[in-house]
Design goal:
363 residues, alpha+beta, five-stranded mixed beta sheet, four-stranded antiparallel beta sheet, 7 helices, 23% helix
Length: 363
C-alpha cells in the first residue's frame, strides 16, 4: 500500500516526488522505535530537541517535561544517552514525547506492540483523550483487532490508492473479503457445486445471533455455522462436518453433525440445512476460516466432498471489560479465549482461621 512512505511524507521526513500535502496543524509522529531521537543525546536533551522540532518554545516544553517523564517510566535513565536505551524504553519515551507536546495531528505507525501491557493501556487511553479533545490521530496497522477497538473511521489502501472509507466494522469486513477472496457467506450453482451423484453442497454461511451472515463477530456472542446441501439419492447415511482454522493455520477444532434425528439414519432425497452454534467467549480474536465436508458413512465409507477455506470471518474483542480479556488491553495470545469461572481465597499471614472466599469472574 505504500503506507510507510505516505506516513513519512505526512511527517515531512520525505518530500513527495509530485503532488502536495495539506496539513492543518502541528504534526507529531511515531513511525518506528526511536523516531526523531539523536542516539548520542540523553533522554532529557531529546525531549527538548523534539519539542523544538515541533515548534514549541522552551517554556512550553518545561511545563510538560515532568508529565512526559512520568508517563514514559524512564525517569531513572532520563540523563542517560538514548543509544543505551532498550527498544521498549525508546518507544515509551518517544510516544510520551509525541503525545504530550500537544500536536494537532498525531501519526502513529504500528509500534504499540513494543512495550509491556500496562504501557499499552496508557497509550490507548492517551490517544482516546487526544481524540476526544478534537485533535486528529492517524493510526496505521495490519492488526484488525486493534483497528476495530481503537478507530471510528478507517481508510483502506491498495497500491497507494484509497479504495474504501467508512466505519471500522464496514472496512474490516471489506478488507477480509478483498484480501482473502472469502466472505462469511458462499453459494454454489447446481452444476458447479462440490459433490457427486449422492449429494452436492449448496451454501455455507457464518451467522450472528440474529441469523444474518456477518463478516465480523463480537467475541462475546455465539456464532452459527450454517451448511446447506442437497441429497440426490436416498438410502445413504450422510454426516456433514466442518473444521475451524485461525489465521496462523492452526486447526482449532473439528465438528460433525450429531443431530439425533439423522444420526446413523438413512436420509431421503431433499435439501438439508444443518446448523451448529459455537458458544460466545470461546474463540480468540482474529480471522477464522472454515473447511466443510460431507461423509457418506453407509453403505460405503467415503468423502462425498471436502472444500477448504469456503468462508471466513473476523472475531472482534471489546474493551468493555465483560469479555475474557477483562481490563487487560494488551495482546492476549492463544488459539482460544474461554471465559472461565474464577474463585479466590484470601488468608491473612499466620491466620489459622477459615479463609474468606471472594467470588469473581474473569479470564
Amino acid at each position: 500500500a505504500g503506507k510507510s512512505t505516505l506516513l513519512k511524507v505526512l511527517s515531512r521526513i520525505t518530500e513527495p516526488t509530485e503532488g502536495t500535502v495539506d496539513l492543518f496543524g502541528r504534526v507529531g509522529s511515531l513511525l518506528e522505535v526511536g523516531t526523531g531521537f539523536h542516539p548520542e543525546l540523553t533522554g532529557r536533551e531529546n525531549i527538548f530537541l523534539n519539542g523544538a522540532i515541533l515548534g514549541m518554545k522552551k517554556v512550553e516544553i518545561e511545563r510538560k517535561f515532568d508529565e512526559i517523564v512520568d508517563f514514559s517510566g524512564v525517569e531513572k535513565f532520563i540523563d542517560t544517552p538514548v543509544k543505551r536505551y532498550s527498544s521498549g524504553m525508546k518507544v515509551r519515551l518517544a510516544f510520551a514525547v509525541a503525545a504530550h507536546l500537544e500536536p494537532e495531528i498525531l501519526i502513529v505507525d504500528e509500534v504499540l506492540s513494543v512495550g509491556y501491557a500496562e504501557f499499552q493501556r496508557k497509550c490507548i487511553g492517551k490517544m482516546e483523550a487526544i481524540g476526544a479533545s478534537g485533535r486528529t490521530i492517524l493510526f496505521v496497522s495490519h492488526n484488525m483487532s486493534a483497528v476495530t477497538r481503537m478507530c471510528d473511521r478507517v481508510l483502506m489502501m491498495d497500491h497507494g490508492q484509497i479504495v474504501m472509507d467508512g466505519t471500522a466494522r464496514e472496512v474490516v469486513s471489506h478488507y477480509l473479503r478483498h484480501g482473502r477472496g472469502r466472505a462469511s457467506h458462499r453459494e454454489w450453482e447446481t452444476e458447479k457445486a462440490p459433490g457427486g451423484e449422492i449429494a452436492r453442497l449448496k451454501s455455507v454461511a457464518v451467522c450472528d445471533p440474529r441469523g444474518k451472515p456477518s463478516d465480523s463477530m463480537d467475541i462475546r456472542e455465539p456464532v452459527e455455522v450454517r451448511i446447506e446441501f442437497d441429497c440426490l439419492q436416498p438410502g445413504h447415511v450422510l454426516m456433514p462436518a466442518f473444521s475451524l482454522w485461525n489465521d496462523e493455520g492452526l486447526l482449532l477444532f473439528s465438528a460433525m453433525d450429531l443431530d439425533p434425528q439423522w444420526r446413523g439414519r438413512q436420509r431421503p432425497a431433499g435439501t438439508y440445512v444443518c446448523r451448529a452454534e459455537i458458544p460466545g467467549n470461546l474463540l480468540s480474536e482474529g480471522t477464522m476460516s472454515i473447511n466443510t465436508a460431507l461423509w457418506e458413512w453407509e453403505p460405503r465409507r467415503r468423502i462425498e466432498y471436502h472444500e477448504k477455506d469456503v468462508v471466513a470471518f473476523q472475531v472482534l474483542d471489546s474493551l468493555e471489560g465483560d469479555s475474557a480479556r477483562g481490563d487487560f488491553i494488551g495482546e492476549l495470545r492463544g488459539a482460544i479465549r474461554p471465559m472461565l469461572e474464577w474463585s479466590t481465597e484470601w488468608r491473612a499471614d499466620g491466620d489459622a482461621t477459615l479463609p474468606t472466599k471472594l467470588e469473581s469472574t474473569g479470564s
